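Internal ticket #5521
Category: modeling
Description: The requester needs a full-assembly model to guide mutagenesis choices. All entity lines are attached below as received. Residue total reported by intake: 166.
Assigned to: D.W.
Attached entities:
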Amino acid sequence: MQKSKIPKDSIGAFAVQCEKCFKWRLVPTKEEYETIRDTFIEDPWCCEKRPNVTCDDPGDIEYDTSRLWIIDKPNIPKPPPDTERILIMRRDLSKLDVSYIMPNGKRLRSSVEIEKFLDAYPEYRDKISVEKFAFTPPKILEDMVPRNSEGRNSSRTKKLKTVEDD
Ligand SMILES: [Zn+2]
């Protein structure tokens, strides 16, 4: 069997917002980000969770148009052990596609595919349950996507620049 090439995640950096001061703090790894996201509603994030940081310190990153921001739904389950959740941005910046890389390298794109996978490889059933997979893509913040004066249906450019008010 030919080993398929695993595509690269489109996300360049992870950040979390403090519930008290609303500053954005960078999260160094995807793993840590996924842990925060897993319980975000019950356990919102604040600056004090980071060693030696308080709300008085300047934020790590500004919410602006120097980069494209996408916002995740809270409480997306942490991917099961030995699986990876990846997000791929479409070329026209219209949408992100969610897929999971399974422990044997297979890439799956829907809950139906997960079900089929577990039927085909029942040995994974004790480690992997279908409820732990979430194919809901994060939201692309439209205001942050550059567009020309003809409106949001016009073609989008990849290069980010300041968006002017209409
Ligand atoms: Zn804070």
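Resolution: model delivered.
Comment from assignee: The chain has two domains: 10-63, 65-150.
Ticket closed.
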